[in-house]
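Design request, tokens follow.
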């Protein structure tokens, strides 16, 4: 069901004042902000507790405070994780959708805010999940409310194939490491990220001529003694 401006504003109202009970990073730069009371859910494969509401700005976003960008998609993983942790315990003070491209803006106590920023062809990929299983997301440039099964049915065939392909590759590649490890590959200047999706987002190619993994595929948590900053 497509949402009118009045309808989605009414859906956003209950979120105002809710605390961020758990802020965590998923695949690559994906962010999940679990709001309200936390609970387990046997229907999902999540390793984390779920909130009454979950705000997910997807992969492209920035965290800002007092007119200063704290971190964003292109920062190192450690910076992303630290930035996301800054939101834990804060309360939602405002939430809105931009026009005409429906990007999400969420304001938090302490002057912090999160903005979704789609940097690829297509449309914003953020979602808001409610405890009753309903999702708000963008589809064909409009806000749409749907349940979990409807949301999954919207995945195109190529997305399902891409997901399976990336998962199969990740299970074969594993996480190569040479000890002693001087740092994570994601923070090494010789790490070149793969241009892919799903599990491929966790991998890149080593270009360190002095490293044992030169020209090899490595995980972002891989590493070797030839780490360079």
């Amino acid at each position: 069901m497509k949402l009118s401006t009045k309808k989605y504003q009414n859906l956003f109202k209950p979120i105002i004042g809710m605390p961020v009970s758990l802020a965590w990073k998923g695949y690559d730069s994906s962010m999940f902000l679990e709001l309200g009371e936390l609970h387990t859910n046997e229907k999902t494969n999540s390793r984390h507790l779920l909130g009454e509401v979950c705000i997910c700005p997807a992969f492209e976003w920035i965290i800002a405070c007092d007119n200063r960008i704290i971190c964003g998609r292109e920062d190192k993983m450690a910076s992303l994780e630290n930035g996301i942790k800054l939101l834990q315990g804060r309360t939602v003070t405002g939430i809105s959708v931009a026009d005409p491209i429906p990007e999400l803006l969420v304001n938090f106590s302490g002057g912090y805010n999160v903005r979704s920023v789609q940097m690829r062809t297509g449309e914003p990929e953020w979602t808001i999940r409610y405890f009753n299983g309903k999702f708000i997301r963008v589809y064909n440039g409009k806000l749409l409310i749907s349940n979990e099964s409807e949301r999954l049915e919207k995945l195109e065939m190529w997305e399902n194939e891409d997901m399976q392909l990336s998962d199969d590759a990740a299970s074969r590649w594993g996480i190569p490491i040479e000890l002693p490890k001087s740092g994570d590959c994601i923070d090494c200047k010789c790490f070149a990220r793969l241009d892919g999706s799903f599990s491929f987002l966790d991998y890149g190619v080593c270009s360190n001529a002095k490293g044992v993994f030169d020209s090899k595929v490595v995980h972002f948590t891989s590493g070797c003694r030839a780490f360079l900053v």
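Comment from the thread starter after seeing the answer: thanks! The chain has two domains: 5-153, 165-219.
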